[in-house]
């Protein structure tokens, strides 16, 4: 699939254009430079054309700041993948010297470049966009992301450079990687990809957006969603942190399987447990990954595993995988577990379910206060959410926790549901 890359200096509206084209808020939008630090990928459709839309961090040429330099390298990599470039500028600020520097960089690329002059919110501003022809590109379009002015004209030109592409549809397997800031989520993805796909530093909160990256593993396409680290709500000093928290929760909601990454070199924290609770409440299959085992002596690693197993005894169904993202140890065991969980999350055999039903009725007393015995008539598996089950009884009554625990235990005994929470409805 062809790639369309959005570039420009900070705070001209790259993420706003990205979201406007997609029709949903994927990149965090704020008025602070550098909010989009990494490349952000999504599949976009316009008319009969499908393409990857790539949002990038703001280019600041010749800036020696570490983050700015890292962003510039990310943009340079994105440009090397691009089939069409949308060069976005700001009509309110006019021809900025940085725009000219970026134009000089882009001219060296032998690919179509379409200039989008943003914030042309009215006709007067739209006319002023003609000044941007001086950047040396023939395709210049006034737009307003805020009011959606000129977006269709811009996209008409962009897709004119793209061939018609049929979207290959398969069952999507999305993995959200969540955890506190600085536990190694981006380092893990970088090691898997063997490229600097995400900007990584030792500053907590480096990854601000949730970013989808597609990989191929054992003939299966897996979408990795690297999320901003979840902070405690009381630590939301900036509203951007609250956006990140909401985006992370959103990423968990749209994921098929969630990886909760924990720093194995530290004790389990209250925040780790809070993140677990978010995942559990959303009923998502889960793998706990203990990262940074390179900081633990080899003869202590089993002891560390047992420590976390004891601390997480309430989640005995969840597999624990120990890795070192820095050393690359165990990183593919996580993907193997992902594929195992996906395989296990399937429609259950009807005959086996009938046998389970008989066994439950023989061993679990329901509704003892009733004169006639309460019987479990059926256990129905949801067709859409395969870890959801509806229990139907011959009488209405309030089921007890110990009864639900037996039903869950009996189903898990028959079928492999490792890492998968079972949700019951009555």
UniProtKB/TrEMBL annotation:
GO MF, any single term: ribosome binding
Any Pfam family the entry gives: KH_dom-like
Keywords: GTP-binding, Nucleotide-binding, Repeat, Ribosome biogenesis
Start and end residues of each EngA-type G domain: 2-166, 173-346
Residue numbers binding GTP 2: 179-186, 226-230, 291-294
Sites where the protein binds GTP 1: 8-15, 55-59, 118-121
HAMAP family: GTPase_Der
Subunit structure: Associates with the 50S ribosomal subunit.
Family of the protein in this entry: Belongs to the TRAFAC class TrmE-Era-EngA-EngB-Septin-like GTPase superfamily. EngA (Der) GTPase family.
Name of the protein in its database record: GTPase Der
Gene: der
């Amino acid at each position: 699939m062809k790639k369309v890359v959005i570039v420009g200096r900070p705070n001209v509206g790259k993420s706003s254009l990205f979201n406007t084209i997609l029709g949903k808020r994927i990149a965090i939008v704020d008025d602070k430079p550098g909010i989009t630090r990494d490349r952000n990928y999504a599949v976009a459709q316009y008319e009969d054309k499908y393409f990857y839309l790539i949002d990038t961090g703001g280019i600041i040429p010749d800036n020696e700041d570490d983050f700015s330099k890292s962003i510039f390298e990310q943009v340079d990599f994105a440009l090397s993948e691009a089939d069409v470039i949308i060069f976005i500028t700001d009509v309110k600020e006019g021809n900025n010297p940085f725009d000219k520097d970026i134009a000089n960089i882009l001219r060296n690329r032998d690919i179509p470049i379409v200039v989008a002059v943003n914030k042309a919110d009215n006709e007067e501003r739209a006319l002023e966009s003609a000044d941007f022809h001086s950047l040396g590109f023939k395709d210049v379009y006034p737009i307003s992301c805020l009011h959606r002015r000129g977006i269709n004209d811009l996209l008409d030109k962009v897709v004119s450079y793209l061939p018609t592409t049929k979207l290959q549809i398969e069952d999507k397997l999305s993995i959200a990687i969540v955890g506190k800031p600085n536990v190694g989520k981006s380092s893990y993805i970088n090691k898997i990809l063997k490229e600097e796909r995400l900007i990584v530093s030792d500053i907590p909160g480096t990854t601000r957006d949730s970013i989808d990256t597609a990989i191929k593993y054992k003939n299966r396409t897996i979408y990795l969603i690297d999320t901003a680290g979840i902070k405690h709500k009381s630590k939301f000093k900036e509203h951007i942190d609250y956006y990140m928290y909401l985006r992370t929760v959103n990423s968990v909601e749209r994921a098929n399987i969630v990886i909760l990454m924990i720093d194995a070199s530290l004790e389990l924290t209250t925040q780790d447990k809070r993140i677990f609770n978010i995942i559990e409440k959303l009923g998502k299959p889960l793998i706990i990954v203990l990262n940074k085992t390179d900081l633990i002596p080899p003869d202590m690693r089993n002891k560390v595993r047992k420590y976390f197993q004891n601390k997480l005894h309430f989640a005995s169904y969840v597999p624990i995988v120990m890795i070192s993202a820095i050393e690359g140890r165990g990183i593919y065991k996580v993907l193997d577990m992902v594929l195992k969980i996906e395989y296990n999350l399937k429609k259950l055999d009807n005959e086996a379910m009938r046998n389970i039903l008989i066994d439950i009725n023989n061993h679990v007393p329901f509704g003892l206060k009733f004169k006639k015995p309460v019987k479990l008539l059926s256990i129905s598996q949801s067709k859409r959410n395969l870890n959801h089950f509806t229990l139907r009884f011959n009488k209405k009554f309030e089921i007890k926790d110990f009864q639900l625990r037996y039903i869950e235990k009996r189903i898990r005994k028959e079928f492999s549901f490792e890492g998968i929470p079972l949700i019951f409805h009555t």
